[in-house]
Structure formats: structure tokens, C-alpha cells
Task: structure prediction
Amino acid sequence: MEKHKIAPSVLAADFTRLGEEIDLVNQSEADWFHLDVMDGRFVPNITFGMFIIEAIHKMAQKPLDVHLMIVEPEKYIEAFRQVGAEVITVHYEACPHLHRTVHQIRETGAMAGVALNPHTPVQVLEDLIEDIDLVCLMSVNPGFGGQKFIYQTLSKIRKLREMIATANAPTLIEIDGGVGLQNAEALLQAGADVLVAGSSVFGAKDPKATIAALKAFERKFS
Ligand code: DX5
Ligand code: ZN
Result:
């Protein structure tokens, strides 16, 4: 079984020293940079867009995993791809024509991700799962870093794992929100492939060691 991935969420980085924070992730065992784009409409917060992502892309030595918490994401897929996104994740709740949007992402050459809010059941993706490269299960309500992990996510992971196995699809399961050393092992055992970690990494005394510790957990699910 392939080793799980760690995707530090830059939202929790110190933006007055963004270059150093990017460098830290470059030097670490992390696999991806997780970048949270918020528009103040889909979620009650505004973060950054193409401009900052382009700057990060210039320094980043690892793929950019771009999480779009915006309405009408289909309007900006090409633009995010152009500034370096390798994974583009849209929200199920923001996409009335999800099939079209997922294929639009794939046509740019990026991996297509779909995120589900905590209250959205995984079954809504049953008829599209083979076309999705990554499902991001939100384990907090999207909008802010540093929130408490919602424990019901664990059973959603197991259900999604089953759905993916039934479809015999290579879809990755990503968990986003409240992830850290305290719950990483349980998430991996339930079937997670990618762990997003913001405050638990950038808020740690030694972020690089925390990334290494998150990476060191074993996966035992079958
Ligand atoms: C929340 C974002 C998350 C956030 C995670 O809306 O999608 O990626 O940065 O931060 P932590 O790990 O601090 O919960
Ligand atoms: Zn995110």
C-alpha cells in the first residue's frame, strides 16, 4: 500500500515570513502544499487567490493542492491551473453541474478533487466516484483554521473507502480540518490517504518534526 501524504495548510503559516514557511515545507517530509481559497460568499472568510498562489508556486518544490471554497468555481479553474495548481478541489455544495466541473478540471491536466462539508453524506458522490481523483472530507466547517475535529468524519471515511473499493477506483481520500498527531493514526486506519494539517504543523514548536511524525504513522486498513 502506498504511503499516505501530508499536506500542510499554508493558511496557518506566518504570512510575514511566507518565504521561510514555504522553505520549511520544501525541506520537510511533506508531500503537497494545501492552499485554501475563500471568497466570503461560500464561506464566511476571505483568504487569497491567484496572485498569492502564483508567488508560492515560484518557491514551492512540491505540488500545490488548491482547495476552492468559493461559489461558481468553474469560472476560475483555468486561472488556478495557470498559476500552478496540480490538484483543484471544488465543493460539492457549490457545484450544481458537478460532473461537468470535474471534467473541466481534468481537461486542464490537474487532478480533480471534490470536497464535502461535514453534513453532506458521501453517498452523493456514488455515481461520479470513478471520475474523481480526490475526495476531500471536511472534518470542520470550512472557513477557518484551528477548529475542533468533528468525530463523525471517521465513519464517513469508512463509508467512502467502501464506495471507492466497490467502484475499484483509485480515488484518494483527503481529510481537512482539526487534523494532528492526536487523531492522525485513527484517520489513517479508517482509510485516509492525504492528511491536511494547518495549525498542528505551523503552530508546533518544531513544524518539520511534526510533519515527520505525521508521515511516520502506519496504515493498517485492508
Ligand atoms: C478550513 C480549511 C483547512 C484549514 C485547516 O476551512 O479548509 O484547510 O486550513 O486548518 P487546521 O488544520 O488548523 O484545522
Ligand atoms: Zn482546506
